[in-house]
Design brief:
- The chain is α+β, with helices and mostly antiparallel strands.
- Among the domains are: about 45 residues, no CATH class; about 200 residues, Biosynthetic peptidoglycan transglycosylase-like (Penicillin binding protein transpeptidase fold).
- Helices cover about 35% and strands about 10% of the residues.
- The strands form seven sheets. A five-stranded mixed sheet has the order 2-1-5-13-14. It has a five-stranded antiparallel sheet with strand order 7-6-18-17-16, sandwiched between helices. A two-stranded parallel ribbon has the order 3-4.
- α1 crosses α2, α4 packs across α11 and α6 crosses α7.
- InterPro entries: Beta-lactam/transpept-like (IPR012338), Glyco_trans_51 (IPR001264), Glycosyltr_51/Transpeptidase (IPR050396), Lysozyme-like_dom_sf (IPR023346), PBP_transglycosylase (IPR036950), PCN-bd_Tpept (IPR001460).
- One of its GO terms (molecular function) is carboxypeptidase activity.
- Keywords: Carboxypeptidase, Glycosyltransferase, Hydrolase, Multifunctional enzyme, Protease, Transferase.
Length: about 750
């Protein structure tokens, strides 16, 4: 069968130039001929071999979900905290695209789209003639071929091989032929509608807007379904050369191209003359709505977002290498539902903003942070700080997250500060060890003893502990309290409520320090910078000289509220990829510890009085949650020279750490000593944990705690409160009503004598 003459080839000169082109790329010429006539009509070994080579090319292309936008969501599943992406793309269905854009893109890019089988031979011959006869280089790629090309690039980028992608003139004839073969195969596998949808969702519309939905939102502030005729024509024109027809940078080029698209639509009878004329007369009017990305753009939770991001990137469940995990995060179109409570976060951030006025931040550069954990689940419900997120360090701005450790347990960076000393918020753990040893909270303890010299022998069955409080030789001064009226005998309970250093030391002197260490390990306490368990090699660690981050402190107190069961803090509830597949998420891995429910109850019982008893170190805070919250307990903390100040407290449903102080961790810098300093118009002779950190804690918990578990704390055993009573005579059995223990312990004696003044360092 003879080859039908094509009217495009009408001169010997043109044919000669075409043969010259075929001489450069025989295989490409064979492809054109092979598409026009059956292979059996061709002869010659070169042609046959070329067709065989074409037949042996891959005929299948994996069409994966294109790169998408990862959204980090609050726990309500609707509040977007931040978006992350390499390519701003929001895939939509074909029926979510305006008919205007579907018609416009077909008109300008591939008017025979619905007629060809993936490769437009007429277009190829037209392009060849234009290129070699007229010197006018033209493309001949169909929408299907363009879709194939974009898919190949996407697949390379997904595999971390984006540098291997070839664009435009970089492609060889073999590359083009391979794309043609794949386009033919794609047309056999997918419908025209599927191909058009895939193309419009993958193609670049300039300014990092990929896909028609993102482009419509970026340039016009509308959804793809609502694009008008002139708007659609603008966007259809962009894809030919995104930089040259960029509507923002090149508005005249974009307008000219739009009018060309409208002319093609008129020629193809897709629109009427009146529609054409009206659209051409319409000025190019943009409503640019740039899509922000990155945690720093989050208006409500930038530092929590950063913690989620780093938690993801540190987890090998999401890829074998850091690069693999980053590609999934920034290309995978994930929906990451976090544990953050949007309402609690808003209130927490508001309280942090109030800790320092803008003028004070610029003048004094003090940091503050607040973080909440839900007992029993480990879910982080709020995480806020007063500094703004920035890679440039300056007063009031930082890249450090004040709430979290510097590294995770595997040593991977979390970008936390992790250098704030915790002060007297450590004392409840010594008190818990006292109760764990079977001692009563109302046992009298000698708080007059102040000398614990280097020769003092501490009991420590798993290490060594030393102290140097004597005021003689190389020892430091005698162990101090906050007030001269505190050096006396009082109960262990009163010592904790009033935050008396000498009482805490006197308790520890009667204990195996190893058990204090085990209590802190059970509650998850580790240093904020190196994440090592507390050593208690120095007795001053009883008073909180260790640096621990607020998240770890809040979670440790949550362990008491959870009856001694420890849960790892978690920030992610679920992750769904672009195909709807659920990815694994970290577990809170809740487990019982050596902290018994009775010891947890006793510690909470004492910490309630920190807030409620006269002279309690937290009584100035006066936290009064809603009527539905039965109990709240906690502890204040203030370090030397008030550089770091704290309140950590919990209800049954919410544990919160509030910190205000030195945002550098450099304890030798006298600039950060908070004595006789003025904050928010008030001068503090000595800043106490109950003041700024306490006010933020109280206001926040009063507003938020009622939204979580409001159950009362379990009552501690009576013997833990009052001690073991002397043996009672045997009870005479009653045939009618057997005796039973009381449901609640008897009331404890007052936690006095109360401490005067504020907390101790």
């Amino acid at each position: 069968m003879a080859v039908r003459k094509n009217p495009i080839i009408n001169t010997a000169t043109t044919l000669g130039k075409l043969i010259g082109f075929l001489g450069v790329s025989v295989l490409c010429g064979v492809l054109v001929a092979g598409l026009l006539v059956p292979a059996t009509a061709l002869s010659g070994s070169t042609v046959s071999n070329s067709i065989n080579a074409f037949d042996n090319l891959p005929a299948q292309l994996d069409v994966n979900t294109p790169q998408g936008v990862t959204n980090i969501m609050a726990s309500d599943g609707t509040t977007v905290l931040a978006s992350l992406y390499n390519q701003n793309r929001v895939p939509v269905e074909l029926d979510q695209m305006s008919p205007n854009i579907k018609n416009a893109i077909v008109a300008i890019e591939d008017s025979r789209f619905y007629e060809h089988g993936g490769v437009d031979t007429t277009g190829i011959l037209r392009a060849i003639v234009a290129t070699f006869a007229k010197g006018d280089r033209q493309g001949a790629s169909t929408i299907t071929q363009q879709y194939v090309n974009n898919t190949i690039i996407q697949n390379l980028e997904a595999a971390g091989k984006g540098d291997q992608a070839k664009l435009g003139a970089q492609k060889t004839a073999g590359d083009k032929i391979r794309e043609m073969k794949l386009a033919i195969a794609m047309e056999k596998q997918y419908s025209k509608e599927d191909i058009l949808k895939g193309y419009l969702n993958i193609v670049n519309f300039a300014n990092n807007a990929y896909g028609i939905q993102s482009a419509a939102q970026l340039y016009f502030g509308v959804n793809a379904a609502d694009l008008s005729l002139p708007q659609a024509a603008v966007l259809a024109g962009v894809v030919n050369s995104p930089s040259y027809f960029d509507p923002i940078a090149q508005p005249q080029n974009a307008t000219d191209r739009r009018n060309l698209v409208l002319g093609r639509m008129l020629d193809l009878k897709m629109i009427t003359q009146a529609q054409h004329d009206e659209a051409v007369a319409t000025p190019l009017t943009l409503n640019v709505q740039p899509r922000t990305q990155g945690c720093a753009t989050s208006s409500t939770a930038p530092f929590f977002c950063d913690y989620v991001l780093r938690t993801f990137l540190n987890n090998p469940d999401y890829g074998a290498t850091a690069d693999d995990r980053a590609r999934l995060l920034y290309q995978g179109g994930l929906t990451i539902k976090t544990t953050l409570d949007a309402g609690a976060q808003t209130i927490a951030q508001d309280q942090q903003n109030k800790t320092s006025s803008p003028e004070d931040i610029q003048r004094l550069n003090r940091g503050s942070a607040m973080v909440s954990v839900e007992p029993g689940t480990g879910k982080i419900r709020a995480m806020a700080q007063n500094f703004k997120m920035s890679d440039v360090a300056a007063n009031g701005q930082t890249s450090y997250n004040f709430s979290v450790p510097a590294v995770d347990l595997q040593g991977n960076p979390l970008n936390g500060l992790g250098k704030m000393q915790v002060g007297s918020t450590m004392k409840p753990f010594v008190f818990a060890a006292w109760l764990q040893a079977g001692k009563s909270m109302n046992t009298l303890v000698n708080g007059a003893k102040r000398d614990y010299p280097s020769s003092f022998r501490w009991t420590n069955s798993c290490g060594t502990t030393s102290s140097n409080y004597s005021g003689t030789g190389t020892d430091t001064p005698l162990l101090p309290n906050d007030s001269n009226g505190d050096y006396n005998t009082r109960t262990a309970l009163a010592g904790l409520v009033g935050s008396i250093n000498t009482i805490t030391f006197a308790e520890a002197a009667q204990l195996d320090i190893c058990n204090i260490k085990k209590i802190t390990e059970a509650a998850g306490l580790r240093t904020g910078d190196t994440r090592q368990p507390l050593s208690f090699e120095q007795a001053s660690q009883f008073l909180g000289i260790d640096s621990i981050d607020p998240l770890t402190m809040a979670n440790a107190y949550a362990t008491f509220a959870n009856k001694g069961t420890y849960c790892s803090p978690i920030a992610i509830e679920s992750i769904t990829d672009g195909t709807g597949k659920q990815l694994p998420v970290p577990s809170a891995d809740c487990k019982s510890t050596i902290i018994t429910p009775e010891v947890a109850a006793g510690t909470l019982y004492a910490m309630q009085q920190v807030f409620t008893a006269p002279g309690g170190s937290g009584s100035a805070i006066n936290p009064r949650p809603s009527q539905n919250v039965a109990n709240m307990g906690g502890k204040t903390g203030t370090t030397d020279f008030s550089q770091d100040t704290w309140v950590v407290g919990t209800t049954s449903g919410l544990a919160t750490a509030s910190w205000f102080g030195n945002p550098t961790g450099n304890t030798t810098d006298v600039f950060y000593q908070n004595q006789n300093k003025t904050f928010n118009g008030r001068t503090y002779p000595r800043l106490d944990g109950a003041y700024i950190a306490g006010t933020a804690f109280s206001s926040y918990m009063n507003a938020v705690a009622g939204n979580f578990n409001t159950a009362p704390f379990p009552a501690p055993p009576a013997r833990m409160v009052n001690g073991n009573p002397p043996p009672a005579p045997p009870a005479q059995p009653s045939p009618s009503s057997p005796s039973s223990p009381p449901a609640t312990p008897p009331a404890a004696p007052p936690a006095s004598p109360p401490a005067s003044g504020g907390t101790n360092p």
